[in-house]
Amino acid sequence: MLYGLAFAKDKVQEEIDRVIGVRQPVVEDRKNLPYTDAVIHETQRLASIAPISVPRKTTCDVHLNGYLIKKDTSIIPLLITVLRDENEWETPNTFNPGHFLNKQGQFVKKDAFMPFSAGRRVCLGEGLARMELFLFFASLLQVFRFTPPPGVSEDELDLTPSVGFTLNPSPHKLCAVKRS
Ligand code: HEM
Q: What is the pLDDT of residue 159?
């Protein structure tokens, strides 16, 4: 999995260098950076930082997959079960930007990608969050090469999240080396 991350990082930088060069990335660049976009989506899918959505209550009897959920039942949507659904993703538990790319290397949207939830109460900040993720990620990788600290190999990095209401990255030391 970590090998996949290192490989993806190199490909993202190659794409950014080729498409943007040295100028500041802007939102409009996203459509011309399908691989970078796929890496961001795949990172959000696998990291699943909000694994549980906000509780709901049914307003009427609901029939779902052979089950009857009665009116006024409390429901806790588990977004992570969709983001890691083995019927939706080729390698649900492994980092794989190919989940969001077609054979021609173009970006493809997936209905099962719902880290911001879905429906009427979908995250209000989705547009802002997606814009920030793209601009920060592209800008940082354009300028820096990120590596583990000296003496630590990529295989030794532990991606196990620290668990709370959200899944957060565990504290890590890393080096940001300016690219020439
Ligand atoms: C990667 C970043 C983010 C993720 C993964 C995320 C995820 C979520 C999720 C899963 C919900 C629950 C939706 C539901 O009830 O079904 C939510 C709700 C919400 N989020 Fe975000 N969010 C992010 C960033 C933001 C930002 C940057 C803002 C504001 C600027 C924001 C504002 C809100 C608000 C106001 C709600 C409540 C919407 C409502 O109940 O109608 N979020 N978010």
A: 83
